[in-house]
Amino acid sequence: MDILNLTLELTTSKMATVTTNQSVVNVTQQDSSIMRNRQDVDKYITPFIYAVGFPGNLMSFIIWLQKRMRHSSGCYLASLAMTDFIFLMLHVMYELHEVWKVDTVDYPGICESFTIVFLAAQYLSPLLVLAFTVERYISICHPFTRERYCTPRLAVIIVVSLAVFSLAICGIQGYFYRVDPATNLCNVRKEIIEGGTNSFWTIWTWITEMLIFLVVPLSVLIFNVMVILEARRLSKFEQHQLKSRSQKTSATTFMLLAVSFYLIFTTLPVTIVYVSYFSFPEGKDNIIQATDHMWQRHFKYLLARKIIEEFGMTHYALNFYIYMITGKVFRQEFKRLFFRFCVKEIPERVRTEYSTLRSSFRGSMKNMTVRLTNGHSHKEGNETHV
After folding, report:
1. What residues does each domain of the chain span?
2. Cα dist from 140 to 30, 229, 245, 263, whole Å
3. Is 133 in contact with 223 (CB distance < 8 Å)?
4. Which residue stretches, if any, does this entry annotate as coiled coil (predicted)?
């Protein structure tokens, strides 16, 4: 929801207002410990999310592409892993630009295209979660239509359609953003934000953000509740008759429910905190921020919002670990790939020496057993003879 963050700052923030009164500028840009803590959260927590997100999404993508895992749900989850991986890559560029002030996107063409793809990836991830949630709802609540709607081919078509839809609703952002000739920075056109909260850009951003980060998570929640209620209504007779199929379906359902519920728990708080922005207004321009109650309240809100934003971003990074915890088949496939890779990495000479040593050891143990047995039998024979 980085675009909504920028919308709030550009359309309502006095600190973003250009003024000729130098004393006012100094007051509104005065450093505070709360704002420094907010920057620290950005600088130190976000790299940790990258550290766990990049390898996790890459491993998820590889595993879901395996032949055994390439069912309809696997198509959605492989697409989700790649989408999250792309989003994190683009977020690195965004973070370098916004937090570390590195010129990563301040170039004509890159500014516009980056904004479109970055937002499209951000939007596509919740839409994919909604897609496989609806598929699971069909599979559980309408099992007779499962063969028709829950197929890998249809899953691929839906994924492509959602990607096109995400690019379509974000395409207009390519017009909204450009490299400002005065500052040489990638930013929103000044004429687009004229009118403040009533500007077309602000209205368009609020509509699209609420659609993706409020309507979609609530829809996921509703479908999940229906799936859970239907699963609980299954009779003991049905579970007994469909034991193996029911166990496999239940395991997959539990894993997908965990992923979709995590999306809800990480997305809705961010949406709520953004909607609450106007409940924490800024103070007056000519008041010292460090001592003004309104400014301090606003700064505390910004710090809390940043922490919740970082928590919300984890759903782009932690799906792999959810799969590992809740998915037995996923863990088995991970172990299979891991051990196959490890065995392949062992040099041929080492494997040959290990096999020879193990064979020699087994042969020695066999000979020792034979000698001991023969010796024992010979002794018993002597004793009988005497």
Report:
1. 2-345, 353-386
2. 57, 10, 12, 21
3. yes
4. none
Residue 284 DSSP SS3: coil
Read off the tokens for 35: 């704002």
**Amino acid symbol at 235:** S
pLDDT in tens, 142-190: 989 999 999 999 999 999 999 999 999 999 999 999 999 989 999 999 8
Specify the long-range contacts of residues 294-303, CB closer than 8 Å, at least 24 apart: 296/32, 296/34, 299/32, 299/34, 299/35, 299/38, 300/34, 301/276, 301/277, 302/34, 302/35, 302/38, 303/34, 303/35, 303/37, 303/38, 303/41
DSSP helix/strand/coil, 40: helix
Match domain 2-345 to its CATH number in 1.10.620.20, 1.20.1070.10, 3.30.365.10, 1.10.760.10. 1.20.1070.10
pTM: 0.82
Tokens standing for residue 214: 């409020």
**10 neighbors 201 (Cβ within 8 angstroms):** no
